[in-house]
Amino acid sequence: MNLLGSLFHSSIGKKLLMAVTGLVLFGFVTGHLVGNLQIFLPPEKINAYGHMLESLGAGLWIVRGVLLACVVIHIWVAIQLTLENRAARPQGYGVDHTNRATLASRVMARTGLVVLAFIAYHLLHFTIRLQHPEWSEHTYRLANGTMARDVYTMVVQGFGSVGVSFFYLLAVGLLSYHLSHGIVSMVQTLGLKNERWTCGLERFGAAYCWAYFLLSAAIPLSVLGWMPVLSGLIHR
Ligand code: HEM
């Protein structure tokens, strides 16, 4: 069997695929958050950033392709591993075998599904702009005279709706919870977890997830005007 075949067919190969695709997606959500935080800077910044990404042309499509492949593999392998675990678990003892697992680890499939539904909604909302085709026409003149798409106004208008903002809050909350188990599990599979720094790793995972959640939540909440200091940074 070739390397790719054994990756997809052995348990350790599947866990490795989960960890590597998880690492790529973790890198993406972290980078995406850093980019999005530019909403707290003058509009020039996030619009120039959006324009820079769009001007990557074919490069952007390659990145999108890699991300899509990671999402598909991550989900497909998760389903396979869940089915294998179920088949291997002895039935009928009436004992709760999940006692030692954390709640976050037990609800990975459910939190993952909500995040997937969120991604579909998010792409329709901000990338395809189904509900607001006019967002594709909004332009902004950058300092160097280039006309760019006005991502800033799109985000501010998008989060102007309380319902939409609350859906985002729920999604980033569940994504953070999903990551809190995912980070530890990923490091363990990649063989980087050892007794000496297990505790530090778990603390880092928890701190990262809280920071990710609070920073992500700050964007819609500030647009809604519910964060006194940060809301003042959003120039409407
Ligand atoms: C407060 C949170 C978020 C904000 C403000 C935000 C903002 C945006 C914006 C403005 C775009 C479209 C960029 C454009 O039109 O050029 C976008 C695209 C995207 N976002 Fe988010 N996002 C957030 C959270 C997330 C999360 C949590 C995920 C993943 C779980 C995510 C995944 C994506 C993806 C996959 C795209 C498409 C990128 C592409 O065009 O290739 N976003 N986001």
Task: Identify the bound ligands.
Answer: protoporphyrin IX containing FE
CATH homologous superfamily designation: Fumarate reductase/succinate dehydrogenase, transmembrane subunit
Radius of gyration: 20 Å
Query: Class, according to the CATH hierarchy?
Result: Mainly Alpha
* Element-by-element helix/strand order: HHHHHHEEHHHH
The percent range for strand residues is under 5%
Main β sheet profile: 2 strands, antiparallel
Structural class determined from secondary elements: mainly alpha
Q: How does the overall form come out from the CA principal axes? A: globular
Percent helix range: over 70%
Terminal Cα span? 59 Å
What is the CATH topology descriptor?
3 helical TM bundles of succinate and fumarate reductases
Please tally the β strands and state the result. 2
Q: Helix count, per DSSP? A: 10
Structural domain tally: 1
Second-tier CATH architecture: Up-down Bundle
Instruction: Give, in spatial order, the strands making up the sheet with the most strands.
Output: 1-2
How confident overall, as mean pLDDT?
89
